[in-house]
C-alpha cells in the first residue's frame, strides 16, 4: 500500500477528485459537503481544511482539521497559505459526538495507522514548523486506537447521547418512558398545538427563515450556557445557515410568538443510519421565551426517527440526565492529543 496525502484548503482549492463518491460510500453527514465546508471556512476564525489520504486514485481516509491560534490573537483567520504558530484540531464543527477522521471500510487496522501517519505529515507540511501538535476530538474507541501512540495522551471526554430506534411509532417510544415524563410530554404537546399565540413551523429545505435571526438566537443560547475555553469554533454565521437550512436533508423547526418573534429553533440532520438533533436554541422565559418547547422538539424529532425508519437519533453531549429521561443512552468518546515530536511518527498497532 502506497499512501499519499494532501491538505486541501476549501477557501482556495477545488473539491478533491472522488470526494462525492467517498462521502456517499462512507455515508457521511451533510456537513461534509465541500461547498458547505468552503463557506464555513471563510467565516471561521479557525478555518477548517480537509486532509485527504489516497491509495492510488481511491480516497482511503479523510479528516477535517481546524488550524487554531491562541485566543489573544486577532479575531479573523490568516489569509490562505498563512503560516503562524498554532495547533491542529481534528474536529468537525457543528457535528457533536462524531469523529472528524474517517476511513474507508476496507482499511485494516494497520492500514488505518498508515493513513494517520500520511495525514499527519501532510498537516505538518501545510502548517509548517510552527505546528505545536494535533488533537483528535470526539473519537470513538476504535478511532482512538488508530491514532493513539506512546508519546500521546488519551482521555475520556463527555459521552454523546444516542436513541436507538426500536419502535413502530412514537407511542412505542413514549410507552418506554417514566409515567411522569410520558404524561408531561403529551401535556406539553397538546398545550402547544392549541396555543393560538404560538406559531410552530417545521420543514425540510426551508427558504423562508431569516438565517441571521436564527444565527443570533443560536449564538446567544451558546453564550448563555457557557462556551468552553477549549472550544475552537467561531460563532455560527448567518451566511452559513442561509445555505445550510435550504438543504433537503436538513429540517428546520421554529417557534414564534404572536408578534413573530423567534422563540426557539432546531436543526435536524437527516441520515439513514444516524439522524442528528443538531442545533437547539431558545429564549429563556425571562426574555419572553416559553417553557417546555425543548420537549416538544424532541417529540417531533422522534416522530421523524420512527416514521422515516432511521436507525438512531443522536443529540450531542449535554444535559445527560434530561436526555436519559427521554430514553437516550450514551456512547463513549475520547480525545487524543499528539505533541509535535510525535506528529507523523505513529508506530505499528499494538499486538
From TrEMBL:
GO molecular function list:
acyltransferase activity
**EC number in record:** 2.3.1.-
Q: Where is the BioF2-like acetyltransferase domain?
A: 180-319
**What InterPro entries has UniProt attached to this entry?**
Acyl_CoA_acyltransferase (IPR016181), BioF2-like_GNAT_dom (IPR038740)
Q: Does the keyword Transferase apply?
A: yes
Q: Which UniProt keywords apply?
A: Acyltransferase, Transferase
Question: Would the keyword Transferase turn up in this protein's UniProt record?
Answer: yes
Q: Which Pfam families does the entry link to?
A: Acetyltransf_6 (PF13480)
> What enzyme category does the UniProt record give?
transferase
Q: What is this protein called?
A: GNAT family N-acetyltransferase
Instruction: Give the organism the record lists.
Output: Actinokineospora guangxiensis
